[in-house]
Design goal:
Elements: E1 3-8, H1 13-24, E2 31-38, E3 41-48, H2 51-55, E4 67-73, E5 88-89, E6 95-103, H3 106-115, H4 128-140, H5 143-153, E7 156-164, E8 171-176, E9 181-184, E10 189-192, E11 204-207, E12 213-216, E13 221-224, E14 230-231, E15 236-237, H6 253-259, H7 261-272, E16 273-274, E17 277-278, H8 287-291, E18 295-300, H9 302-319, E19 323-327, H10 328-331, E20 342-348, H11 354-365, E21 369-374, H12 380-384, E22 387-390, H13 403-423, H14 428-439, H15 441-449, H16 452-462, E23 467-472, H17 475-491, E24 494-499, E25 516-521, H18 527-539, E26 543-548, E27 559-562, H19 571-589
Parallel strand pairs: 18-19, 18-20, 20-21, 21-22, 23-24, 23-25, 25-26, 26-27
Antiparallel strand pairs: 1-4, 1-10, 2-3, 2-4, 5-6, 6-7, 7-8, 8-12, 9-10, 9-11, 11-15, 12-13, 13-14, 16-17
Helix pairs in contact: 3-4, 4-5, 7-13, 7-15, 9-13, 9-17, 13-14, 13-19, 15-19, 16-19, 17-19
Bound molecules: fructose -6-phosphate.
Fructose -6-phosphate (F6R) binds next to helix 9 and helix 17.
Length: 607
């Protein structure tokens, strides 16, 4: 969960690398470093802490080179410190390497290298890489061949950028299960862990598959497969605009992304549904094939998993196929029952989550078809899956996911309705009615955002709390889960969510005077039941906030937020919005770094 950047061109590399690292800081921020190719060889400057600490170092100003690599770290092996930060030299200082990922067999490789006279300065897994390259270089005297031989020995995940003193006009990059994109400008090339970090420099990108190599020079990129045969790659133009990767006047990315939701929902709808017609040009799924499917698995992590939970009912109710939602890190190790009659859907904003990708590979091995629902174009999951559909949320920078979640829920609903149309197991009119409601979502999301002042006030009254509980029934319980996750990750307040009916089976013991309980009530069939559960906590002294689109006697609650009414299967798209704002304003009241919460990174590319 680190970020890497690289530059090769005619401009000074240092400011470009620092700028890129600042944009990647969400991926890790415990230490950082850069290396540039200077007239007298590679120079490395690195420091513990945020990028600002690195940029404040006196010696960084002497770097003049026009080729360079950079890294922002989220420690896995070895504590955060200057010596453990990247780039790492080999012992002879011929090579410098930055690495995102984990080398699983590094103990073995380190022992092998130590037996061959190498010594190590850091506690990292990465330091074996430049030394291993050097080990082969002494025999091969060829940069690319030595990198390839070293990579052949590596087990685990890696995105690597490598400089070599003997090739002062080149850089080599390679990846395996960790993200890396190559942006092409005019006589210059940018490398990064993600697209937004270099979007202000270029819109033309190349994507490497696992164990493909790129040898970069200022004007040219040569691509090679794992046998070092030369290969051609198509450049892909990315439509995202630069402003979408900037804060654009908002105090934080998270707030901006919350407010972008009417538009990201509109874009996601527009990509698949217009004039009441659903079209998935990305793939053709036949009625014959869908009729053979007897189980759907939706697999993902964190917020993406919550988006799966929020749409399980749409698949079941409209396609009449039993649908299970699973956590990717559990799914991959529990030998799930999968065969060619299973359809597996994987949701991932980043498209790089290691557990989700591993769970996808498992289903493929067992003969199931896989569909990826991803946001980042060209990300690993989009290349691993049989089919891929994109949410159109645009770049999501804040660590806490907001607009990606609502876009995922929108897209999964549309996907379920598309299958339902093909299967013809429910009346067409029922599907048409939901499609019409989907078209109204952007407007209703805008109306929902209008509650901001009330949310801010409520945040002000609860930000000092130590525990907050969320309740809901049916689909609302899944929104409760997402709201609870959002709150804990950015406010550090302990919070839990429960299906409201479960309350009296244990959790109600935690309710005492002034404990905050937040209820979500959007399903007309379940209003009375949930209200009754909320009354139970009020009786025990709880301070309650209710988010609802139903007509309820709200005098009984401490505070009620009214949101627009919508079909229950779409309600998570609206009911989560006030709760995203609540988490945001509580975090602000506490003076925390909303966009970069402690211990968390935007994409979790390690297990
Ligand atoms: C929470 C959050 C995480 C991610 C999870 C999966 O706000 O963002 O829980 O949802 O790490 O990430 P992706 O969707 O990139 O696979």
């Amino acid at each position: 969960m680190c970020g890497i950047v690289g530059y090769i061109g005619t401009k000074k590399a240092k400011p470009i690398l620092i700028n890129g690292l600042l944009r990647l800081e969400y991926r890790g921020y415990d230490s950082a470093g850069i290396a540039t190719m200077e007239k007298d060889g590679i120079k490395i400057v690195k420091e513990k802490g945020r990028i600002a600490n690195l940029d404040a170092k006196e010696e960084i100003n002497s770097l003049e080179g026009t080729i360079g690599i950079g890294h922002t770290r989220w420690a896995t092996h070895g504590k955060p410190s200057a010596v453990n930060s990247h780039p790492h030299y080999d012992n002879s200082k011929t090579f410098a390497v930055v690495h995102n990922g984990i080398i699983e067999n590094y103990h073995e490789l380190r022992k092998f290298l130590e037996d061959n006279g190498y010594h190590f300065l850091s506690d990292t897994d990465t330091e074996v890489i430049p030394n291993l390259i050097h080990y082969y270089y002494k025999k091969e005297h060829d940069f690319l061949k030595s990198v390839k031989l070293a990579c052949d020995d590596l087990k685990g995940s890696f995105a690597l950028e490598i400089l070599c003193n003997d090739y002062p006009d080149n850089m080599i990059v390679v990846r395996q299960d960790s993200p890396l994109v190559i942006g092409k400008g005019l006589n210059e090339i940018y490398i990064s862990s993600d697209i937004p970090a270099i979007l202000s420099f270029t819109k033309d990108f190349y994507f490497l598959n696992d164990r493909e190599y790129a040898v970069l020079s200022r004007k040219n990129i040569e691509f090679y497969d794992n046998n070092l045969n030369s290969i051609d790659k198509m450049v892909k133009s990315i439509e995202w605009n630069t402003a979408s990767a900037e804060k654009d006047g908002y105090e934080d990315f998270m707030l901006k992304e919350i407010y972008e939701q009417p538009n990201s929902i509109r874009e996601t709808i527009g990509s698949k549904l217009s004039e009441n017609k659903i079209s998935f040009t990305d793939f053709e799924i036949s009625k014959d094939y869908l009729e053979t499917i007897n189980r759907i698995y939706i697999v993902a992590c964190g917020t993406a998993k919550n988006a799966g939970l929020a749409t399980k009912a749409t698949f079941e109710n409209f396609c009449k196929i039993p649908t299970e939602v699973d956590i990717a890190s559990e799914f991959r190790y529990r030998d799930p029952l999968i065969n060619e009659h299973t359809l597996c859907i994987y949701i991932s904003q980043s498209g790089e989550t290691a557990d989700t990708i591993a769970a996808l590979k498992l289903a493929k091995q067992k003969g199931a078809k896989t569909i990826a629902v991803a946001n980042v174009i060209g990300s690993s999951i989009t290349r691993e899956s049989d089919y891929c559909v994109y949410t159109h949320a645009g770049p999501e920078i804040a660590v806490a996911s907001t607009k990606a979640y609502t876009s995922q829920v929108v897209l999964l609903n549309i996907l379920a309705l598309y299958f339902a149309e093909v299967l013809e197991r429910v009346p067409a009119l029922e599907i048409d009615n939901i499609k019409k409601e989907i078209m109204d979502l952007p407007k209703k999301a805008e109306i929902t955002l209008g509650n901001v002042a009330e949310i801010k006030n409520f945040a002000n009254t609860v930000y000092k709390e130590t525990d907050i509980f969320f309740l809901g029934r049916g689909i609302d319980s899944y929104v409760a889960e997402e709201a609870s996750l959002k709150l804990k990750e950015i406010s550090y307040i302990h919070s839990e969510s429960y299906p409201a009916g479960e309350l009296k089976h244990g959790p109600i013991a935690l309710i005492e005077n002034d404990v905050t309980v937040i209820g979500i009530i959007t399903n007309p069939k379940l209003v009375e039941k949930t209200v009754s559960n909320i009354q139970e906590v009020i009786t025990r002294g709880a301070k309650t906030l209710v988010i609802t689109n139903q007509k309820i006697n709200d005098e009984q609650f401490y505070k009620t937020i009214h949101i627009p009414e919508v079909n229950p299967c779409l309600s998570p798209i609206l009911s989560i919005i006030p709760l995203q704002l609540l988490a945001y304003y509580i975090s602000k009241e506490k003076g925390l770094d909303v966009d970069k919460p402690r211990n968390l990174a935007k994409s979790v590319t390690v297990e």
